[in-house]
Amino acid sequence: MAQRAYGNGADWPLIYEANKQTIGPNSNVLRIGEVLSIPSLSPVAGGVYLVKQGDSLTSIAQRAYGNGNLWPLIYNANKQVIGSNPNVIQPGQILHIPSALPADLPLRNGTQSQEIQGDILAGFNKDHRVYLFYSFHDQASGRAWLKELVPLIAKTKDVAAFNAQFSAARAANHGVDPPNLKATWVNVSLTFSGLTTLLNANSKAASDITTLFPHFAQGPGADESAMNNGDKDFNNPNNPNNPSDPKNWKFGSDNRIHAMLNIQADDPKDLQGKVQALQALAYKHGLNQVFEQAGETLPGALRGHEHFGFKDGVSQPGVAGFDQPDPHDPNQDPRAPLGHVLGSPGTEIIAAGEFILGEQVEHDPTFPDENFPPAFTTSLNWMKEG
Length: 386
What we know:
There is one protein chain. By secondary structure, this protein is an alpha+beta fold. It has two domains: 2-96, LysM domain (Membrane-bound Lytic Murein Transglycosylase D, Chain A, Roll), CATH 3.10.350.10; 106-306, no CATH class. Helices cover 31% and strands 11% of the residues. The strands form three sheets. The protein has a four-stranded antiparallel sheet. Strands 1-2 form a two-stranded antiparallel ribbon. Helix 4 crosses helix 9. The longest helix is centred in the middle third of the chain and has 17 residues, at 156-172.
């Protein structure tokens, strides 16, 4: 059996150690009909694995799931074998590798994950990016453009799966990005002006958006928002020398935009090709490109940091329905009723409605699952998962 499984009959103790309870004390006696687990030489979700020199639970989880932070799944399934210290595992130990993430994460791998754009929860995480800002001439041109754009939009399910695969490949390659695993992703955002142009300014939907999301309707250039954000001087709101005043913005104030494309890629040539194709699509439908902004990951020691020098995403929470909660969360914090992310102690899980329209919001049981008052459900139901 070991000869067929591993190409070396001398490795039979691996099979025996994994099946002692089934086989019994005599390794020379097997009974017809016995079902045996064959330890894998590489960790596979749902299988058993023989620990080798240099292994850690983090490295095993990285290879099994594509995410080293999921090591508690393996530890909790093998506490009797490993003992009280998860940082110490011994070569020769047989570990049971639990199945991968359960299917009850609808925002990661369920039907809803195909309705949510990929950069919201999963994150594109690409080194190269371009943002294109557009305005429509009229409703017809905007709708025609959007109809052709929708099939090109990256969805959460695809982006999350790619990210897991990429992380596993990078770990297997000693921290070096896999050269042949690349993707180019596209997402779209619409401003209030863009939505009302597409909807008709006098439609019930446009009116309901204004009522339900007043700050979105007012825009960042409104006096209240600009003062709260520090773009206008409280003491001298009409200061003509204030460089951050909305009247000095490249867009967003008088120079309105209707849509923004977020294009990101692993390869700069792939990015350039996608940008050119999207610009051609916009030109075809008569859109006006208001602005273009390119971006790159910071080099050297600043990699993974944002432009002020802070570690990017260090305080990011988990999201219910997307991130796996720790079933053995030792920190029963009343301020974190949804628990913490498995493998990431201290990372609080919060309600998905804080990021995704139509999902349950934090500490607010007032609305039903749609999270719209009943009067808005009909006209704005299309906004769900936005």
